[in-house]
Design a protein that fits this description.
It is elongated and about 60 Å long. The chain has two domains: 158 residues, 3-Layer(aba) Sandwich (Rossmann fold), CATH 3.40.50.170; 60 residues, Methionyl-tRNA Fmet Formyltransferase, Chain A, domain 2. The strands form three sheets. The chain has a six-stranded mixed beta sheet, with helices on one face. The protein has a three-stranded antiparallel beta sheet with strand order 9-10-11. Strands 5-8 form a two-stranded parallel ribbon. Helices cover 26% and strands 30% of the residues. By secondary structure, it is α/β, with parallel strands linked by helices.
Length: 229
């Protein structure tokens, strides 16, 4: 085991455990999953000495001292340089996109501007949780291809388009004018760690999940009702 090449999978999301298990069971490498910000330090990496750090989902800045010494590859859910920035899934869906690409890029000083290793197609139907779970298989295959084919990353081409990270108050659906938009808001926020689509009254907050869009243009969904503080 100690003679095997070591790779780190960096993610704080529970659904990426499946990716870790797949890579561990289907490759002849030593895989280490890091899911806590406090553990991901240069001191820790110096002990592990990974060949690469693969980052399917991470919400924090990668320190320069880390990515300059250990190659860090992040997987971004847009066809870069289109869609640099935060909340890519939600920003794509609110703009009406039905499909996108996952871009595997080298982490650099500037957000989402690194050289690209490869891209793969991704459909955007279903809930956010379902989409993220779907990406597991795609990203796993991308990781294996990067390792086994010694892919050389190439600079991004084209003019960058930037997304802004969405704020919790943007999950309010009170001003949406059609059923399809409401459905999109509910599903695109229906995953661990995201502020659910919601409505508010003077005393209560209604949060929606598990939505299905019916042929008669109605929505069935679960709702959590909580008293406002």
């Amino acid at each position: 085991m100690e003679n095997k090449k070591r790779f780190i999978l960096l993610s704080e999301k529970k659904w990426n455990i499946d990716m870790y298990n797949f890579l561990k069971d289907n490759t002849n490498y030593n895989w280490i999953i890091v899911n806590k910000r406090s553990k991901f330090t240069l001191e820790y990496l110096e002990k592990v000495k990974p060949e690469f750090v693969f980052i399917p989902h991470w919400s924090y800045i990668i320190e320069k001292e880390i990515f300059e010494k250990y190659p860090c590859i992040v997987f971004h859910m847009t066809d870069l340089p289109f869609g640099r920035g935060g909340s890519p899934l939600q920003n794509l869906i609110v703009r009406g996109f039905k499909k996108t690409k996952i871009s595997a890029i080298r982490v650099t000083n500037t957000i989402d501007s690194g050289d690209i290793y490869l891209k793969r197609n991704l459909m955007l139907n279903g809930s956010a949780r379902e989409i993220f779970e779907r990406t597991n298989k795609i990203i796993s295959e991308m990781i294996i291809k990067i390792i086994e084919n010694n892919i050389i990353p190439r600079p991004q081409k084209g003019n960058p388009i930037y997304f802004k990270r969405r704020k919790p108050e943007q999950s309010n659906i009170k001003d949406l004018e059609n059923v399809e938009k409401i459905y999109d808001y509910i599903r695109m926020l229906d995953a661990e760690g995201y502020p659910k689509a919601y409505l508010e009254t003077k005393y209560f907050k209604f949060e929606f999940s598990s939505a299905s869009l019916k042929s008669d243009k109605t929505i069935n969904a679960d709702v959590k009702i909580s008293k406002k503080q």
